[in-house]
Write a structure and sequence with these properties.
Distance between the termini: 35 Å
Oligomer: single chain
Order of helices and strands: EEHHHEHEHEEHEEEHEHHE
Strand content: 15-25%
CATH superfamily: Vaccinia Virus protein VP39
Number of domains: 1
CATH architecture: 3-Layer(aba) Sandwich
Helix content: 25-40%
Number of helices: 9
CATH topology: Rossmann fold
Structural class: alpha/beta
Shape: globular
Amino acid sequence: MSVPSREVHGTDLDEFYSSSPIDTWRQILGSQMHYHHGIWKSNEDWDTALENAVLDLARHVEPGSTVLDLGCGWGGPASVLKERCGCAVFCVTVSQAQASYCAARGLEVHQADLDSVIPDGNWSVGWWMESLEHLEQPERALAELRRRCKKLVIRANTCEAGPRRLFAGSMPMQSTRFYLDTLERTGWTVTHVANRRSESLRNSFEWLAGLKRAGTVWSDDPHLRALWEYSTFFATTPSMYAIYPLMDIIAE
């Protein structure tokens, strides 16, 4: 059963993230369906860079931890945390299609709009991998997580040139300082901050290649078109990455 989902610029988020066929996404993202930036240590292929990104962030997660994966996408990171780190992962996504796919992967998953609902329970870690920046009310979510999680492990795309929206309006971008101050106001202590953007620069080209592989260049599908426009923007004007850091933030 579909849950209520907020609209962004007239777009229902469940529909936005659920409209394209699974096979199309598999062609774009690869077999493990990682929907986030890769981290390149040297000249690895894209699949390795995507797994690097998860494992590198997972250095801040104790093996065997209970993890609340907030904005889990197609379950790529959750599967790595479960299979490589021995974690018990509870996934949350706004998308019915993503929730169904994660369940088929053997992941425990709940469909919810995180701007409206944070699941009840207690976890060692709240994991936000390039998902916190999609929230309209991040302060509310971070405050609710203070009593649910012992630690937050965050990787977020930020904007240092003032608030603005990206990705068809679904990403209300905020500065790194905004997130650090919000964490402090909601009772968290930040223990680690690092900018990973320089290690992720190839990603826009990989997404563009995947979209071409899938035959979805300038698609009428709003989500696929947003990914094409986002990737084209950064591939053709890489200097803009200077004001769009990719930040790791750890808080306890």
